[in-house]
Every structure is written in structure tokens, then in C-alpha cells.
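Q: Here's a chain of 153 amino acids. Please give me its 3D structure as C-alpha cells.
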Amino acid sequence: MSRAFVKEFDGEEVELPDRPISEHPNLVTAEGLAQIDAALARLHASHAHAQAAADRSALASVGRDLRYWAARRSTAQLIPAPSSNDKVQFGSTVTILRDDGRRQTYRIVGEDEAEPAKGTLSYVSPVARALMHRQVGDVVRAGAGEAEITEIR
């Protein structure tokens, strides 16, 4: 096993696990692929800096992240932007009206680029799965309630 993730406690070495990688296909938007590339560039620079400083702790941490993002980059499947707004698909921006009156807009994206608080949902999330292949006017299960699709962009 690689020693890059070894942490020492009182002379005792402990192996740190790699970051878990999803079992789902690594679908990405063009923006998601750019985010992965930017993360790799930043991490390569951090790795060089940690090497120059002989910072073993930083090398271990950066090495762990480098392996994760390199694996994600090698498995990334770029999905083109939707050519039609007739049905919800990967990359679509969908507005829903929940049964409690809340109107929410989400873009369906890859797992690594999803940030629900910023309006992006992973395509494997329950809400995104409920929305996929549906059209405006369809009612779907969204959390504990229901929601109507009011717009697809």
C-alpha cells in the first residue's frame, strides 16, 4: 500500500484511507470537467510547494486529493448540453413548484459539481432522478411532498 497517506502518532504509523469514489458513472458537464481540471492544476502546484518545503503532512493530504481527482478525471464522461428543452435531462435547468408553495430552480449535473445550496443537483440524487425524462406540467415526488415541473431550460 502507498505510504503517501501515512500519519504518525507517537512513532506509530496509521494508514489513511483514500477518498471514496462513487460507483455511479462519472457524468460531467463542460463546467464540471473544467472544475476537475482546475482542481488538478491547483493540487499539482500545492504538491510541488509541499515537496519544496519537505512538508510530509501536506504531501500526504495533497497526494490523497490528487489521486481522487486524477481518478475522477480519467473516468469523466462529458455529456453535451441538452439540445432540447422538451424533457428533463442531464444538464437541464428545471424549475419546480412544490406543494408548499416554494419555487425552486436546479440544474442537474455530475456528482462532484453538485451543490444544492447553489442550485445544482447531482443526477443521482432522489429529486433529480424523479425529474429525469419528465416534462413541464408533470408532478413528481420531491422529498416528503410533490412538485410540479413549471419550466425546463
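Q: Can you summarize the key feature?
A: The longest strand covers residues 145-152.
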